[in-house]
Amino acid sequence: MSAGASEGQASKEALFTQVAEQYAGFFGTWLMNVGRRAGLFETLRAEGPLTEEALAAKLGYELRYARTWCRGAYAFELLTHDPEAGYALAPHVQEVLLDPSDPSFMGGRAEFFPMLTADFEMYPERLVDGGLYPFSARPPELVTTMQAAARADAPNAIRNVLPSVPGLVDRLAAGGRILDAGCGAGYGLAAFVEAFPAADVVGIEIDSASVAAARERASEQATVEQVHLLEAGLRDEFDLVWANISLSHTWGSGADAFAALAAAARPGGFVLCSDVPYAEAIEELRSTSGRLFTGVTVYVSLLGFELLTPTELLRRMDESGLEDVRIVDQPARTRMMALGRKP
What we know:
By secondary structure, the protein is an alpha/beta fold. It has two domains: 3-98, Arc Repressor Mutant, subunit A (Orthogonal Bundle), CATH 1.10.10; 115-341, 3-Layer(aba) Sandwich (Rossmann fold). It is built from 16 helices and nine strands. It has a seven-stranded mixed beta sheet with strand order 5-4-3-6-7-9-8, with helices on both faces. Strands 1-2 form a two-stranded antiparallel sheet.
């Protein structure tokens, strides 16, 4: 066999393996989805290790189905197995799949990603007609599930980003004003209210169901208004303006959105943009994060928006008139958080 033929065969085998792994990942996503929705992970966290029989009996489930799930979750290294004691959560499953306060939390995506089936089903048609699939046309539960998947972001920013600015935490704690621009169902608002009980916390959102949920979740301390960022007329009002995935999911990433965020901050205040980091170079797409975020671009593009690279995000914040713009190091690898100060 010639060297060229050997290399071609090796490449074919490598591609076959990669394709098979992607198909396997489809099943892994659903195993995580079922494990979270059916309480299997939670039960093993609270009472594991448990045998297949004990787990099925504890939850009143059919043994055959419980066994199928346990062995699948073990195959994906989500569970450990002892021949006598049974199954237990693998190391760090608690933080990554079950604890929304942990910056590494990815559990909510197990519910959200399978709900994007309609996006991929219609994509061939949108290639032809160029149409959109806005949130207003989607089932309400998709929107709330997406927002729940992102609920670790504000606590992460409060704990790991805001302290990087000398005096900012004290300023907010003493009664500063905070704007959540695209507050969704209010998970971020609730986090800011808890962290800064003396602050004046305001959220704006365009989805009516999300506004209702945010008002209920954020308590009486937060004010929630149903208004578009570009129509809110906010100017020189806030010590902190927080925009979490709203540039890629709600307002778009045009110059007008960045200008409105900057305008809302008072002189000396800060704008903190948190979003999905897209690859700087096409070669970087050939990575786990590159493939994950490229998948995100499919549904984001159907909203009519796009993901920004870190360089693009910094440039657009800088062009809005903000100063000292920088990406702040923080532990969530599915987010980039860029901070800028209004002069």
